Amino acid sequence: MRALKILVVVMGVILVVGFAALVVAIAGRMSRSGSPSVARVFTARPIDIPRGARMEAMTAGADRLVLGLALPDGNRQLLVIDLTTGARLGTVELHPAP
To answer: Does the model's pTM come out above 0.85?
Structure first.
């Protein structure tokens, strides 16, 4: 019977310590992110596309934007843009197979 009482007391102490640790962890996370985040203004350089080209498709990935362009000469082009910086990463020319 004595061992059962000791076991109950020990388990009660573990419960109180665990609950206190949980409260401290939540308070710590809230204090780090407690202030509302300030909205950042997105500024990026303009992306030049060929004159007369029209956008046919747009696909966004995790950090890339791919624009499908139809060029005035009938060819197609894929334009790859980095979403974090707004920089043009490259161009993929698409030509019809002969």
So the answer is: no
